[in-house]
Amino acid sequence: MEKKKLVLIGNGMAGIRTIEEILKLLPEEFEITVFGKEPYPNYNRIQLSKVLQGDTEIKDITLNEWDWYEENNIRLYPGETVTKIDKDIQTVYTDKGKETPYDYLIIATGSNPFMLPLPGADKEGVTAFRDIEDCEKMIHASKNYKRAAVIGGGLLGLEAARGLLNLGMEVDVIHIADYLMERQLDRSAGKLLQEELEAQGMNFLLEKQTAEILGKKRVTGLRFNDGGKIPADLVVMAVGIKPNVQLAKDTGLEINRGIVVNDHMETNVPNIYAVGECAEHNGMVYGLVAPLYEQGQALAKHICGMNHQGYKGSVLSTQLKVSGVNVFSTGLINETDQTKSIKVFDEWRNTYKKILVEDDKLAGAVLFGDTKEGTKLLSLIKKGANVEEYLESSQSQDDNESIVVSMGDEEVICGCNGVTKGTIVNAIKTQNLTSVEEVKGCTNASRSCGTCKSLVADLLTHTLGDEYEADEKETVCACTDLSRDEVIAEIKEKHLTHSREVMNVLGWKTEEGCSKCKPALNYYLGMVYPKEHEDERESRFVNERLHANIQKDGTYSVVPRMYGGVTNAEDLRTIADVAEKYDVGMIKLTGGQRIDLLGIKKEDLPSVWKDLGMPSGYAYGKTLRTVKTCVGAEFCRFGTQDSTGMGIKLEKKFEGLNTPHKVKMGVSACPRNCAEGGIKDVGVIGLDGVWEVYVGGNGGTDLRKADLLAKVKTEDEVLEYTAAFLQYYRENARYLERTSHFVERVGLELIQEVVFNDELRQELCKRMDDALSVYKEPWNEVLESETTLRDLYEKVHAK
Amino acid sequence: MEQTVKKVFVGKYSELPERLGKTVILEDKEIAVFKLANGDVRAIENRCPHRGGVLAEGMVSGEHVFCPLHDWKINVTDGLVQAPDEGCVQTFEIMKEDEQVYVLVPSEITQS
Ligand SMILES: Cc1cc2nc3c(=O)[nH]c(=O)nc-3n(C[C@H](O)[C@H](O)[C@H](O)COP(=O)(O)OP(=O)(O)OC[C@H]3O[C@@H](n4cnc5c(N)ncnc54)[C@H](O)[C@@H]3O)c2cc1C
Ligand code: HEM
Ligand code: SF4
Ligand code: FES
């Protein structure tokens, strides 16, 4: 059977998306031909703003490579314009004299930029902002000219203006209304936006109407209705777009503002469809990709003969893609007699939020400064949610947690492409995706405007846990092509003792490394040469450098050591006094059986430690964190061994040890295992006359049950086997590899073979003793060093 | 809009810790001052454009600082956030008079 002929006019975002949807449904059904006026494969028009702002390059915004057309047997005629459609004999004609018959014809010709019909508008140096050519023109102009004027203070104009600023031009934005983006923002947000952009260096001329573009051959300036003039040698018109309907009009299709279509994107002529910015559905012409993609999906289903309800119109949302500025709006923008509003204006953080409610339902929102609620508000408004639902959900939102965690599976993460959380999570799980790029490839999420990238990243982190960050590469980091093993071998062979030496000798690609390799090298050097290597404080992550945990507001938390989770009245009293004296924000019992004092100012840290007079609990380090213990034989009616005593011994022995990642331990005195050793890096369980030592457990993101390493008789043997295991882990794990991954990767059998070999075990224990011998209690060390106090803990107060 | 510049004393050059940041507190802003490995001193706004992380506590590598909160990489000379993230922080000029290091702060910053 001969294939049906499908012809697409317009090689742009909506048209090609429609083809993609059709190929998904019926890959072999059609013989597809595409005509595109522009000489490129389908590219991401949205990202032109980023190209202009210098964040990406033209070659990086292609959506469908040439190969894609070939692989799908699509005949593409780039740089060829369709000039005529004969609807009676179902054939299209091009400017290069080609005739192509069709069974189905899709018109997706997009829009033309609206050029104000001003005197002088045809001068050199006047451009629109619509396609690659315009973009190149502006980049080129910026190299030879200094002053740009952008006519139009809407989305497109502001993005263009920001781009031109980045290109080193001085930029005036001329706007007809009295505040910016008046179609998407209310006055308050528009004014805030203006202030922000002025701070970035943009200059605004509001309530100005351009009367003439001045100049001889090339533009030299603008004249306004009120007689005022400004100089300019580049003029960008960004006052709007109008649907590109000339061809359709000549063909005799019904045209209003755009090509009129029904819910199935059918025009009034059989077998001719329209989709994208050139189409008008239910009185609406859309200029953002999200609705266009919905249209494309509806059209694809229709052409493939799938039963469906068609396209029903869209709720829009707007985001401005200018770095450093966050604005978002959706639905109703301005108050009416029927609306009630919730407004929050935080002058301190310079954020503004307005939510409009109509008949108890969410009807619209404007956000400035902090737009992280945007995605959620959009999906609530789309489903016509009650305002109470929003208020409840925003209350239960934990600040520390990404918004994605609290979202439902049906909620949309990527607005442009309508991809839900459920779809993304499912793809991550079933197709083992580990990067935003892969998610983009599989689900289309973040493929268009890119603003949801962070949510996708959060979803990855949330779905995959720690692995996501740690396991991406085999090399130490992007600064080198060497793996961990190769680097350590070189360190030993060439006797390298300082990170900078390692980077120089081993040809690091960056001058001073990055936040991945610096701490890793510092660890490896300390592991190989415990006595020789001097710890490099500048290679330490802030928590390990300052010996306290940084919190999201820049304050710190302090966790004193509490061996085995056992304390006494005097220590508790001291802690209480300190908490009161420094007015700590919160006192919290940690999961590791000790006390956390949160919200302490950096400058106060040394005096807090001094007043406490206790050793650091190392709650911040890649080191032994805590040894959790159960009550044990001393009090518990089930107890068989002194679990607290054993725990204290372990903690005293291994405190301050540098390890590839954090190490947690638990000691219980019977199989009930109250200290939960089954999910600890080292878990010890006391039975009648025996101790069991478990390793490689994890209670975090990757729940893993610990493996039984050894059964031993005495407390000393517990210490010995633990030391041997930990030293083996220290010497063989990758930096940031938890014991759970390590045991899984290396295999328990190999580890057992090593630690049961008397000779090897002795050697491991000996090297462990060397490593432990250099330990100094860090808080005390800080208090004793004036330079450290000055260098790390003092801030400068300007006078 | 008139711009005056305020000269804020940071400290003695030799007392600034190398490859680390120093926090300078103004009335309503904080500035992070870094002494780089090559001896140059740089100053940027002490607030990560991502979620407000204190950049003075970040790890310094060459011309860049890594935010301590979520590891954004920021150029301390031109203030630009490095790909894949985007944004920028304000930069400030440094002035050295003999041993004394100052940061020059435009006045709007100190008032507002
Ligand atoms: C700088 C910029 C930033 C934007 N930012 C955003 C954003 O952040 N979010 C968002 O949702 N949207 C944004 N948009 C809008 C978005 O890019 C458009 O809505 C979308 O590209 C429209 O898709 P389309 O397929 O209808 O038209 P287009 O992508 O314009 O495709 C139409 C194609 O048809 C070709 N063509 C026209 N006539 C003929 C003919 N007779 N024969 C052959 N070919 C023909 C055209 O040359 C064009 O290549 C932005 C647009 C621009 C310019
Ligand atoms: C290395 C990469 C990143 C890591 C490890 C990371 C990690 C995190 C973490 C842990 C939080 C919650 C933190 C807190 O409350 O203090 C967070 C929040 C957030 N991140 Fe990132 N992030 C990364 C990259 C990005 C990027 C590239 C973007 C955007 C372009 C982004 C945007 C956000 C936003 C908007 C939030 C707030 C979400 C919310 O709390 O509702 N992040 N990130
Ligand atoms: S683990 Fe056993 S001994 Fe320890 S507290 Fe629980 S029940 Fe008692
Ligand atoms: S606050 Fe700086 S990276 Fe998040």
TrEMBL record, chain A:
Pfam families: Fer2_BFD (PF04324), NIR_SIR (PF01077), NIR_SIR_ferr (PF03460), Pyr_redox_2 (PF07992), Rubredoxin_C (PF18267). Residues 317-384 form the NADH-rubredoxin oxidoreductase C-terminal domain. [4Fe-4S] cluster binds at residues 630, 636, 670, 674. Residues 621-761 form the Nitrite/sulphite reductase 4Fe-4S domain. One of its GO terms (molecular function) is metal ion binding. One of its GO terms (biological process) is nitrate assimilation. It comes from the Bacteria. Binds 1 [4Fe-4S] cluster per subunit. Binds 1 siroheme per subunit. NCBIfam families: nitri_red_nirB. Belongs to the nitrite and sulfite reductase 4Fe-4S domain family. This is Assimilatory nitrite reductase (NAD(P)H) large subunit.
Automatic annotation (TrEMBL), chain B:
GO terms for biological process: nitrate assimilation. GO terms for molecular function: 2 iron, 2 sulfur cluster binding; metal ion binding; monooxygenase activity; nitrite reductase [NAD(P)H] activity; oxidoreductase activity, acting on paired donors, with incorporation or reduction of molecular oxygen. Residues 8-103 form the Rieske domain. Keywords: 2Fe-2S, Iron, Iron-sulfur, Metal-binding, Nitrate assimilation, Oxidoreductase. PROSITE patterns: RIESKE. This is Nitrite reductase (NADH) small subunit.
